Amino acid sequence: MIEVRNIKKSFNGVEVLKGISTTFETGKTNLIIGQSGSGKTVMLKTLLGIHSHDSGNILFDGRIYSELSKTEKRDLRTEIGMVFQGSALFDSMTVEENIAFPLRMFTNKSEKEIMVRVNEVIERVNLINANKKKPAEISGGMQKRVAIARAIVNNPKYLFCDEPNSGLDPKTAIVIDNLIQEITHEYGITTIINTHDMNSVLEIGEHIVFLKNGVLAWSGNNKEIIQTDNADVVDFVYSSELFKMVRDAMRHIVSEQK
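User: That's the sequence. What structure does it adopt?
Assistant: C-alpha cells below.
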C-alpha cells in the first residue's frame, strides 16, 4: 500500500500538486487520470522519487519516504518495477537479456538462477520462443510484454506503469491491461498506472484518482465513474451526450437487477 498525505509540489513558484491525499491499495490496479497539465505525470514522478515533494508525506507500507536513509531508499527502489511509456527496451539486447538486466544489476543471483527466473516470467507473459529475438524483431504488443516481464522479474512490491498502452491498437491494449491486472492480483502488488486511455479506465480501473489542476477532484472505481455526476469527470471521460447515454444505460441495468 502506498499512502499519499497532503502532497504539494511546485516548480519555479508554480504549484503543480496542491495538497493531494489518497491511498493506492495493494492487490488492485490504481489508475491516475486527468487532462494534460492536471499534475498526473508530476504525481507519478513524485511517487517514484524522481521529484522531491515540498511538503506532505508518502508512505510505502508505513515507511515515510522522506525519513528513509540513502541506503533505505536504495533498498526501496529494488522493490519497485517500472513499465515505461515506450517500453524502453535495449535494442542491442535479446528479449531474455532485457528481462535479465535488473537481476544482473541488482542481485547476486547466479546465472543459472537468473535464467530460471527469466524463463518463468517469459512463460507468465506468454512470450514463449521469443528469448533470442531483438526488440526490432517483435511486435509492439510483444515489446510491451517484455517490458512487463522485466518490471516483475525481481518480484516487486510496487509496480508503476506510465501510459502502458501508448502506441498499441485497441485489441492489444486490452490484452496488456488484463495482463497487468492479472499480475497485480496474483502477486499482490501495489500497481499504479498513469493513463489517458478510457478503455483502460473502464476495463481495469479498480481504484481511480482523477486530478484537475493539481487537485484530487474525484476518486472511485470503474463502475462509479460511469454513474458519477461530477461534471469535470463527465467532460473528461466522454462527450457529455455519449457519457449520458452510457450512464443512463448502466443505471437502467442496475435498477433492473435490484
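The chain has a mean pLDDT of 89.
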